[in-house]
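Regression check, WT7 case 635:
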Amino acid sequence: MSNYSIKSLEQYFRVYRRSVEKPKKFWGEIAENNFTWFQKWDKVIEFDMQKASFTWFRNAKLNITKNCIDRHLASNGDKNAIIFEPNNPGEAPRYYTYNQLYVEVSKMANLLREQGIEKGDRVCIYLPMIPELAFSMLACARIGAIHSVVFAGFSANALSTRINDSTCKMLITSDGGFRGSKTIDLKKIADEALDNSPTIKKVLVVNRTGQEVTMREGRDYWLQPLLDNASATSQAEVMDAEDPLFILYTSGSTGKPKGMLHTNAGYMVYTAYTFKNIFHYRSDDIYWCTADIGWITGHSYILYGPLLNGSTTVIFEGTPSYPSYSRFWEVIQKHKVSQFYTSPTAIRSLAKEKIEYVQGFTLDSLKVIGSVGEPINEEAWHWYNDHVGNKKCPLVDTWWQTETGGILISAIPFVTPTKPTYASLPFPGIKPVLMDDLRNEIKENQKSGNLCIEYPWPAIARTIWGDHQRYIDTYFTKFPGKYFTGDGALRDEVGYYRITGRVDDVIIVSGHNMGTAPIEDVINEHQFVAESAIVGYPHDIKGNALYGFVVLKETGLWRDRNNLIKEINQLITDQIGPIAKLDKIQFVTGLPKTRSGKIMRRILRIIAEGEESDFGDITTLVDPEIVEEIRREKV
Ligand code: WT7
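Current build output:
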């Protein structure tokens, strides 16, 4: 029990040393003492980095929902598990105790079984941030179905691609969703997706907005009437430690989205342990993470991590700016939130508004504040620390990825001294290393390099659904024997890590992972477009924004540039979603390419960033003149 909660820096160093020197013993003890198992493991870990093969807690049997719900019932059945804060300020919050959560999840689990969902089947969930989203995920986990949550901001095409990639049998969606002053027509978008997704046999529809929808007979069912008839108790499926728990898609620098697969036991142990320590969770706390459950942050730190620790977790349907820029602070005051976890983009967007929006709210309940998804710049760090944390709450800058399942580098509040813009020290069990481009390890401090992780941790993704070779190629090949994160990092004189950003063609926009290739593919579908290249450039609020360089087919066919820009962005909205829209589009006559045909993005990045700096050696370009032309016509 003792090492489950780390209370001092000395203890952290002790625990950390043990965790890397004797990882089997260390993780075995954490798993043994803090969870409910049907059967224990015969081996803590077996792995092969080259083959990207990881078996944690071999042959153990469990059900993660027993750990999230059932085991809290005797002691904490009447405690709130979920507080739902609706988008519309006129609508009252809803509270679900652990007892009620058990009933909701049981009904849903029974219903899924009745509808023919079996262990191993994939269920796609396309819902707004409402409690039914949490119930659906937990119901899947309870019966051993694999959930694949698709963020409700994605388009029909993006939804359909994801459904088809993992051949989902069922879709759970809603009539619509509230978001700020708008509603999103989720069922309508889903209908369009389903035209191209024949594997979906049944659609369960939550009534959220009450708007009119089309229901296809024999396929689409309103959820509530079915739930009314479902039994309120349920048996939890016995799952093997390595049985899949969920698939979550993340965009890569090339090709179609990657369905990252996470499995039961390792994910459970790691998200629970990190949540407990990194958010300093204590029994009466109210924890709030503002991310969407459609991203990994929501999976691990709205749902699983908090519930595994018997916490009260807030599910917020709305946005930071509706009905005013005070919304976050109002919610913190109303629910007496103790831990607040959000993104640098949200902080920057609120920091640019009048300070009165935050002043005047009682944020005294806060103990810990956190940041995730992208580097937090110094200015945003201080604003967050001064005006939200009131200089008394440790600010944890948590670095991790969809692939890592849980936080790998972060301070532990009241334990690790924080340093602005530094994620700081590795969590127990995590061995970060910096590698230079020649694949040598950088041993000295105060140097930057490619961030790799040397030893597996329990929540590492197990594969890319349907494409293990791509998993090996993307993460385990460039630096043999190590997991390559795709991020660059700097290590300071005391060993703190600062994440400096992506070193590949992924751009982090508002904390969302955007691969350039998938967006370029969409732009290239436009009838007048010959080719395109996208790079990121610094943006005051979003961290990075997207700049597209577009080569048109023949001049003369098109006339109105503004119209063309609109059409390109509409195409992106339709195919991927509004989050992938370009902030700037520049029409160019050619792209800087090497003789082998590779676009030199480095050059485009320098132009997009508006830097005056030298381009370096551009003699390998087919047409070096194009560079000055592009720079001259920068938008
Ligand atoms: C990428 C992963 C992890 C949940 C949300 C994003 C960037 C994430 C930080 C941080 C600097 C960060 C990295 C990473 N990132 N957290 N604290 N400081 N950068 O998950 O969509 O899988 O994106 O987000 O570049 O590789 P994701």
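Comparison notes: The chain has a mean pLDDT of 95. Residues 250, 295-297, 372-375, 397-402, 423, 485-487, 499, 502, 508, 511-513 surround WT7 (CB under 6 Å). No diff flagged against the previous build.
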